[in-house]
């Protein structure tokens, strides 16, 4: 069975949060991740990936507001961290591409995003890799950056993606920094958000990275940034 992508075009599966083993962003240790994460602004419409029926709605400290739906061939899809309970009731039927929920930041979450699973039943943990079910190949952020001390588009895109995961960046990660990106950097670094990448911002970022805060982004600073992006520390 093939499923349509439930999140809008322009948003990608976070390569640091694929299906399988990963370093848990809150626990800090390796744990099995039963779905995939997609950073989305709070309130983003989530559309049904196929015809189906609602089998469970709930809320909890971990998953926040959740929704479980059943499709044909006993395929279930699961949505965690929703902004609010789905407007659909248990037993409600829907058609492919109807809005079934809105993404949020509820539960144990480090930033606004959708945690999405494909299950063989409604039971927790009865999951399979969701990527093969998606129509076409999803666009995935590169898994690792080359630590070369060069602030190119790849590094900026990874930085934007990390900031988006934390809820600071609201745009689409494209590797082309501008005012929106710089304001996100400033929000993360804890300085005035004027959209100018000046010496105050540069020093604040260096302090966050743990390098000498001299206001000059040379190879040492960029290499530290790249390493921390690769390790999921930003």
Would you summarize the structure shown here?
With 234 residues, the chain is an alpha+beta fold. It folds into two domains: 20-133, Glucose Permease (Domain IIA), CATH 2.70.70; 153-230, no CATH class. The protein has four helices and eleven strands; from the N terminus they run E-E-E-E-E-E-E-E-E-E-E-H-H-H-H.
Question: SSE layout and pairings?
Answer:
Elements: E1 20-23, E2 30-33, E3 36-39, E4 45-47, E5 52-60, E6 64-70, E7 76-82, E8 93-94, E9 99-102, E10 113-119, E11 127-128, H1 153-165, H2 179-189, H3 199-209, H4 219-230
Antiparallel strand pairs: 1-2, 3-10, 4-9, 5-6, 5-8, 6-7, 7-10, 10-11
Helix pairs in contact: 2-3
**CATH homologous superfamily descriptor of the largest domain:** Glucose Permease (Domain IIA)
- Can you name the CATH architecture of the largest domain? Distorted Sandwich
**Proportion of β residues?**
15-25%
Rg of Cα set: 19 Å
- Give a short account of the largest sheet: 7 strands, antiparallel
Low-confidence stretches: 137-142
Span between termini: 36 Å
Query: Class of the largest domain, according to the CATH hierarchy?
Result: Mainly Beta
Mean pLDDT: 91
H/E series = EEEEEEEEEEEHHHH
- The helix count comes to 4
The beta-strand count equals 11
- Determine the structural class based on helices, strands and strand pairing: alpha+beta
**What is the fold-level CATH name, i.e. the topology of the largest domain?**
Glucose Permease (Domain IIA)
Question: Percent helix among the residues?
Answer: 10-25%
Number of domains: 2
- Judging from the principal axes of the Cα atoms, what is the shape? elongated
